[in-house]
Every structure is written in C-alpha cells, then in structure tokens.
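Batch job 17 of 40 flagged for manual review because the log was empty.
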Amino acid sequence: MTNESIYFEWLTFTWLMDNLLWICVGMIISMLILFIFPVLLGYSIKDEVENQQTNKALKQEDSP
C-alpha cells in the first residue's frame, strides 16, 4: 500500500485544469449566495427598526 488514496485517484492536475472554469463558476455562485443573505437580513432588520420607531411615535402622539 502506497500513500495514494483510492478516493482521490481521479483528482489529477490535468483533470483540475480541464475543469477549472466550472470549479470557479461554482465557487462564485456559492459566494454570491452567501453574501446575498446578510444583505437581505440587513434590509429586513432596518425595516423592522423603522416600523418600531413609527409605532412608538404614533403611541406617543395618541397618549394625552
């Protein structure tokens, strides 16, 4: 038995060079997905805080 693993026999330098474009495309798509969620969460939190502030202001106006 040598140091070679039977699980990574297909992972050669030529295979990596042949599929480098698809690997990069997959990484870019994954990165975009991971960066979109915090932006959407930030907008959601901002809207929620604005709604709370307007509700608080309305309650103060209604109080005598």
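Reviewer: the log was empty due to a logging misconfiguration, but the result itself is present. The chain has two helices and no strands. Unflagging and moving on to job 18.
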